[in-house]
Write a structure and sequence with these properties.
about 240 residues; alpha/beta; Rossmann fold; Arc Repressor Mutant, subunit A; 2 domains; five-stranded parallel beta sheet; four-stranded antiparallel beta sheet; 8 helices; phosphorelay response regulator activity; phosphoprotein
Length: about 240
């Protein structure tokens, strides 16, 4: 059974989340204090973190930052803060998803299950990857090399660190070269759900990928923007 940690200072919302996860055979523990929640999260043993932003003891941003530095688990932010700057900051700190209150408990569970499944596939690939990948498992485009099975990316033979979601966005575009995908299409393909206005997710991930793989992110050579349409990977 999967175990998740809910760090939420509103007892009603926390219990509601716990009950819905329980209906889907996911064990949830609750912590109402940010500082204590951070300690519990870093102690390990959880498969996913549900995180509010406005917490006593430690902010959700600080928790996300420290958890992402030490643990490789999905982090979902659930917050009443709906400003795009908060979403951008959350994704920039390594959050996998951002759900705005009020939210549908069923949708939250669906998003969490999708992230759990994706991280499980990633871990399985890591365990089964070989030191020297087969040529069919590598996409080589000029100085960029994407090792599909190992979830590793190299630029000019230097490895660049990408999060799981950044890698999946890059890989998806690279496997469909010269085709334009809208932000809504990318969200649905990568996150597995309708966008529901969470377009900032895609924008932030594309920006972070460019910063890591492009020589000049302001003039990208790999992932270009087709204004009014979406993004295209150019070979």
């Amino acid at each position: 059974m999967k175990r998740i940690l809910i760090i939420e200072d509103d007892p009603y919302i926390a219990e509601l989340q716990k009950d819905y996860f329980g209906l889907h055979d996911i064990e949830a523990e609750i912590c109402h204090d940010g500082g204590e929640g951070l300690k519990q999260a870093l102690a390990g043993g959880f498969d996913l973190l549900i995180l509010d932003l406005q917490l006593p003891g430690a902010s959700g941003f600080e928790i996300c930052k420290q958890v992402r530095e030490k643990l490789d688990i999905p982090v979902l932010i659930v917050s009443a803060k709906n400003e795009e700057v908060d979403k951008i900051r959350g994704f920039g700190l390594g959050a996998d998803d951002f759900v705005t209150k009020p939210f549908s408990p069923s949708e939250l569970v669906a998003r969490a299950k999708a992230h759990l499944a994706r991280y499980e596939r990633l871990s399985a690939r890591d365990r089964g990857s070989e030191a020297k990948p087969a040529e069919s498992e590598v996409i080589q485009v000029r100085e960029l090399a994407i090792h599909k099975a190992a979830y590793r990316v190299f630029v000019r033979e230097r490895e660049v660190p990408l999060t799981a979601k950044e890698f999946e966005v890059l890989l998806f575009l690279a496997e469909h070269p010269n085709r334009v995908f809208s932000k809504e299409e990318l969200f649905e393909r990568i996150w597995g759900l309708a966008s529901n206005g969470e377009i900032a997710t895609v924008t932030v991930h594309i920006s972070r990928i460019r910063e890591k793989i492009e020589a000049d992110p302001s003039n990208p050579q790999f992932i270009g923007t087709v204004w009014g349409a979406g993004y295209r990977f150019t070979v």
